[in-house]
Amino acid sequence: MYPAGARKSLPSGSSQARSLSCSHLPRSSPRSTSLSARHYKPRREPSSFSWLQARYRLRERNHQQAERLAAMANLFLKQAKQYVATRPSYPPELFDFIASKTPRRDLAWDVGTGNGQAAASLAKLYKAVVGTDTSAQQLAFAAPLPNVRYVHTAPDLPLDGIHAAVAGPGTADLITVAQAFHWLDLPRFYAQARSVLRPEQGVLAAWCYTEPRVSAAVDAVFWRLYRGSQPYWAPNRRMVDDEYRGADFPFDPVDGEAHTGPFEFSTERAMDLDGYLTYITSWSAYQTAKEKGVELLDEATVQEFAAAWGGDGKEVKAVTYPIFLRIGKVRAE
């Protein structure tokens, strides 16, 4: 049985899910048997080394996460206006389904809120919403609402900073991540989510939309363009192409569901050819390619789109975006 508004649900444990390989720890050196080494305690050295190594790796991971999120903010800053003008909206059925899985509706936290699109929909269902983003420029496009508070956060905001600026421990009923899940340092984010969500009740919902569908002719041109754009996407984009199926998601299924998804929804946006091409120029990959001297929408490609669209390009068509949702609740300890 599928949730209302969803066409199908696919368990994350399917054969498409990615497997994780394990690294192996180095073996300890054999213990010396010489008399001169009688007071030497080699067993403590590996422990000390591992501790120092762990500290270094933690600092390095936090630094890399800060750089990744800063890069994300810079990429979307460059196309913020196009992003707002062409980004598809999310259907009410998506939010109704998510909200039906939270026992309480006091507080929702929208991570990577951008222009506040998801936060505005959550505001209709929750008493209070906090939308956070690392880009102040994206937040500038968010519409003010009486029960929504927008917070510009540093990419490496520590847990105590989240408790102070966003939500206290165990107080959030819901955390959402719309089209930004693949940018996050997931182990670090999950620790933050478990701290903020209500024990055994709080729900985490993350979703993405994938490539638009218009018609067989337009889609054929689109897929040629999309394949050519692959070198210019950040590696994280593969999670979207995978529809979040292979993402580690250490949460329990929400009430009434047998797994954590992905569950499929869809949304439509009416566009003429100009709006459709403007959507493509809002891609971070388009901006990256342009910086490298590559025009993805060259004259020949635009002409192909025009021929596939038909007429003078002014005809408004329904552009459909599939949406894939992962959803789960905090595991009982």
Automatic annotation (TrEMBL):
Amino acid composition bias (Low complexity), ranges on this chain: 23-36
Gene3D superfamilies in the record: Vaccinia Virus protein VP39
Region (Disordered): 1-41
Compositional bias annotation for Polar residues: 11-22
InterPro entries: Methyltransf_11 (IPR013216), SAM-dependent_MTases_sf (IPR029063)
Annotated Methyltransferase type domain residues: 110-200
Pfam families listed in its UniProt record: Methyltransf_11
CDD domains from the UniProt entry: AdoMet_MTases (cd02440)
MF-aspect GO terms: S-adenosylmethionine-dependent methyltransferase activity
Official protein name in the record: Methyltransferase type 11 domain-containing protein
